[in-house]
Amino acid sequence: MANKKGLGRGLESLFGLYEEESYENIANAQDKPASKEVKDVSEIDIDMIYPNPNQPRKNFDPDALQELANSITVHGVIQPLVLTQTSDGKYMIIAGERRWRASKLAGLHSVPAVIKNYTEKQIKEIALIENLQREDLNPVEAARAIKQLMEEYNLTQELLSERLGKSRSNIANTLRLLTLYPEVLDLIEQGKLSAGHARALVVVEDTTAQIKLARQASDGKMSVRDLEKAVKNHLNPPKNASGKVQEQSLELKELITDMQRVFSTKVSAIGNDNKGRIYIDYYSRDDLDRLADIVELLKKKEITLADLQNYNKRH
C-alpha cells in the first residue's frame, strides 16, 4: 500500500468520518488566514470555554504565546476555534487551545468559533491526531499520544502510519522513547534534550548511566553525534592488550548489514570476531511478532530473500 504524503490527509479523513463537510482548513491551520470563508462562525464568551482535559499537548511556550497574543491584539483571531457544547452549557475546545490561551492574554472577551457535535471517543481521537499531524507535541507527548491511539482504537503501526501520513519507522522510533527512564523523559519534555538525543539514549539500559549521559547532553552541551559517541564508549567494547579498541572486521560488519536487511530493523554488534553480542531491536508487539514469523519461516526454509523483503513491506 502506498504511503500517503503530507500531514493533512489523515485528519481530513477523520473529520470526514463524522461530518459530510470537511473541516481540514479549521483543524489543520493554526493562526493563519483560512483559504476559504468558514460558515456558521459564532462569537463565544471566552470565559465559557475550557480546554479538553484529554488534550495530549500539555506544554505551551510562554514567549510564543505572548507573540501570538500581540498579533491577536492587532489583527484579532483570524482562524476560528472548533468547539463542542457540553451538558453544563459551556464549550470544550476541539481545536485551537493555543489561540484561546493567547486570546485570554490579549484581553479578549470573546473569540470566533465553529460549534460541532462529537462523541467523547471522536473528540479524543481528533485531539490526538490533530496534534500529531501538526507536530505541536514534544517527542514524549507524541509517543504517549501514539501509544494511546494504538491501545484505545486497536490500531497497528501500519494503520496508524496511514492515518497520520507518517512512516512506520517514524512511529516505531517515537514509541521507543517511552522506554527511557522518567528523569530523562522529563528533560525531553522540558526541551533540554532533542528527539535525536533521546533516540541515542534508548540503547543505554543502565539507569544511572542513562541519566548521567542525559544530564551531560542537556541544554545543548552535546550534539547528537557527540552523545552517540559517548553512548558507544559507555557500552565498553572489548580492548586488546595495548588498551586500544579492537575494530570489527569487514566480515562482521557485512553480517550485521545482512541481518538488518533480513529482519528489516536495527541490528547492532558489540565485540569482535572472537567474542561479543548482537542486538536485534523491536519497537512493539507487532514488530516482535513479525520477527518471530520470519524466524519460523527461516527454520522451515520456506522463504527467499525476495520473499522476506515483500513480507517486511506488507508488515
Summarize the structure in words:
This protein has 15 helices and 7 strands. With 315 residues, the protein is α/β, with parallel strands linked by helices. A hairpin with a 5-residue loop joins strand 3 and strand 4. Helix 5 (120-134) packs antiparallel against helix 6 (139-152) and helix 6 crosses helix 8 (168-176). The longest helix has 15 residues, at 120-134. 25% of the residues are buried.
Quick description:
This protein has about 325 residues and is an alpha/beta fold. It has helices spanning about 10-20, 25, 60-75, 95-105, 120-135, 140-150, 155-165, 170-175, 180-190, 195-200, 205-215, 225-235, 250-265, 285-300, 305-315, and strands at about 40-45, 50, 80-85, 90-95, 110-115, 265-270, 275-280. Helix 3 (about 60-75) packs across helix 4 and helix 7 crosses helix 8 (about 170-175).
